[in-house]
# Entry
Amino acid sequence: MINQKKILIVDDDSEVNDLVATMMKGMGHEPIQVDSAEAALEYLRNQSADLVLVDILLPNMDGWQLARVIRDDPRMKFTPMIMLTGSPTPTLDAMAMEVGANACLLKPYLSEKLEGLVTTVLDETR
# Structure
């Protein structure tokens, strides 16, 4: 049996959020769903997550800004993050590294690709 991990999913698209949550449940993890960077920060300031999946295009505070705040906070700075985006840019991987993300995945993606990346990041950050 896989060790259940808390996976914080930050996406303002409820369909994507629900789909990713279903994938995480199927992997044996506990998904926590929020729809904004502000809600993610509120959660992380009060509880921990084993991994944060962050959509880059969020209202108000985008995923890049959220990642920077997480990395600047001593209580959260070592929390693994995977950035998710539907907007390809040539510097995507470099930007993800700059904000301290462990990985970046371009939407749309196959569930196997996300599940594999989640497993890899969780294994690397044990």
About this structure: Residues 111-124 form the longest helix (14 residues). The chain has a mean pLDDT of 92. The radius of gyration is 13 Å.
